[in-house]
Write a structure and sequence with these properties.
Elements: E1 2-8, H1 18-26, E2 34-40, H2 47-50, E3 53-62, E4 71-75, H3 78-83, H4 89-103, E5 110-117, H5 129-132, H6 135-148
Parallel strand pairs: 1-2, 1-3, 3-5
Antiparallel strand pairs: 4-5
Helix pairs in contact: 1-6
């Protein structure tokens, strides 16, 4: 069992790719017992990646609440409520993914989402300035989750 850090998003849709940017930054400092996965927009295809995860940290763009660039860490029962504010199709996939893992009896013990509220999800490579400026804070919040989990 290990911690899986799953970055999801689409890098050609501007801020929708921020989860992958956070993942890339965190993966620069590998940790024992942590698996970094580039999930893209695969949705249910990411199920095998989390089946053996003791804990799951998801990195993604968010539709809200708050202003573009705001960073959130969501855990436990807050996750479905927040992700009902759909930003893109892969967020629905995340809820489906967690439900499928639960049905298979392979739900991670702990799940957290660290995300940044998107400014733009238009077809464009690169993050908006306000989202890019929040990458450091998102990385710090993700690191804090990993520390709480003992890695």
């Amino acid at each position: 069992m290990q911690v899986t850090v799953l970055g999801i998003g689409n890098q050609i849709m501007s801020d929708d790719g921020v989860g992958l940017s956070i993942l890339d930054a965190l993966a620069q400092q590998p940790r024992a017992g942590v698996q970094f996965i580039h999930g893209g927009t695969a949705g249910m295809e990411n199920l095998p990646a989390i089946e053996d995860a003791k804990d799951l940290l998801v990195l993604d763009a968010l539709a809200g609440p708050g202003a573009p660039g705001q960073v959130h860490t969501i855990e436990g029962d807050q996750i479905p409520r927040l992700l009902q504010q759909q930003l893109s199709p892969h967020q629905v996939g995340l809820l489906d993914l967690l439900s499928a893992a639960r049905l298979l009896g392979k739900e991670p013990e702990r799940v957290a989402v660290v995300g940044i509220v998107a400014h733009s999800t238009e077809l464009h490579i690169g993050l908006s300035k306000c989202v890019e400026a929040s990458l450091g804070e998102a990385c710090m919040q993700a690191e804090a989750v990993l520390r709480r989990w003992g890695v």
